[in-house]
Amino acid sequence: MSKSSIATERSEGVGTPHRITGAGAGGAIRTRMTAPPLWKASITLPKDQAPDVVALFELAPPTPQAVLVAEDPFGPEATVEALYPTTPDAQLLSRLVGRPVSVEPLPDQDWIRSSQEGLPPVRAGRFFVYGAHDEGKVPPGAIPIRIEAGLAFGTGHHETTTLCLLALSKIARATKPRSVLDLGCGTGVLAMAAAKLWRGRVMASDIDPIAIETAQANARENGVEPLIRFAVADGTSNPAIQAQAPYDLVVANILASPLTKFSSAIAALLEPGARLVLSGILRSQENLILSYYTAHGLKLSERLREGPWSALVLRRG
């Protein structure tokens, strides 16, 4: 079967999911990962039901380190697999899904890296995100971003990353930001996208030191390391983040919990007229997130959606 997408959860701080999530930072666990996951929950079901199961696996305790969807492009079914550092509750997952979910231990190897290898490239807006196995396949006119499998998540395959890339492409039609912040940067996909798109100053932060190391290596590989300043940070109070404020574009692909927790601090980083892209949230959480940010003077410009996931584009008046 071909691997079609990968999803992840982030930490309660602002970081990559255990990572992906963060919400992007914002899940229930940190993204730092020093040992491979030991348990796998899996279920095979009709393809059209896979997105809902992905969301259930990501939101149900314990938080998975990764969620993989594998499908046969010519068949009707998909297999959803979640990887955990501790034993998941098979009965709980089965009740939530409405059919049996199998849980089994895994041998000691880097399953997260293995799950990412061979993923197909992603075309989102002006961007083409790919791995080494797709070298030479970049379409004419696309902005290439090469991402390799690693301990930090954010390969561009999760819907929220795709939505953020689409949002950046749309924003580029209207403005050219001079100062950009990627809050919860993971592997640095969005920071690199901004750097390649506008060739301006970009700040990228994550709660996870491994994510920052991975993002720096990816920026170097993509030729944009001089344009991006990286910082290990939980939230927005890090001096490096504050030193480059105010920003005219902030992207936070993290989860609902940290997005609400840091709403006031994130809004304070924006200059008048600045844009804010929020993702890592479900459609059902849109109104909750908007209630926090409109209270700080931001107005909704656009909603982008894919499956159960959403990205909100807001603007400061």
Describe, in plain words, how this protein is organized in 3D.
It is built from ten helices and 15 strands. The protein has 317 residues and is α/β, with parallel strands linked by helices. The chain has a seven-stranded mixed sheet with strand order 11-10-9-12-13-15-14, with helices on both faces. It has a five-stranded antiparallel sheet with strand order 1-3-4-2-5. α4 (159-174) runs parallel beside α5 (189-198). The chain is globular.
SS class: alpha/beta
Please count the helical segments: 10
- Overall average pLDDT: 82
Strand content: 25-35%
User: Numbering strands along the chain, what is their spatial order in the largest sheet?
Assistant: 11-10-9-12-13-15-14
Provide the succession of SSEs: EEHEEHEHEEEHEHEHEHEHHEHEE
Largest sheet: 7 strands, mixed
Low-confidence runs (pLDDT<50, min 5 residues)?
1-37
Entry summary:
The protein is α/β, with parallel strands linked by helices. It has 10 helices and 15 strands.
Protein topology:
Blueprint: E1 2-7, E2 39-46, H1 50-59, E3 66-71, E4 77-84, H2 90-97, E5 102-105, H3 111-116, E6 122-124, E7 127-130, E8 143-146, H4 159-174, E9 179-183, H5 189-198, E10 201-206, H6 209-221, E11 228-232, H7 239-243, E12 247-253, H8 256-261, H9 263-268, E13 270-282, H10 286-294, E14 298-306, E15 309-316
Parallel strand pairs: 7-8, 9-10, 9-12, 10-11, 12-13
Antiparallel strand pairs: 1-3, 2-4, 2-5, 3-4, 6-7, 13-15, 14-15
Helix pairs in contact: 4-5
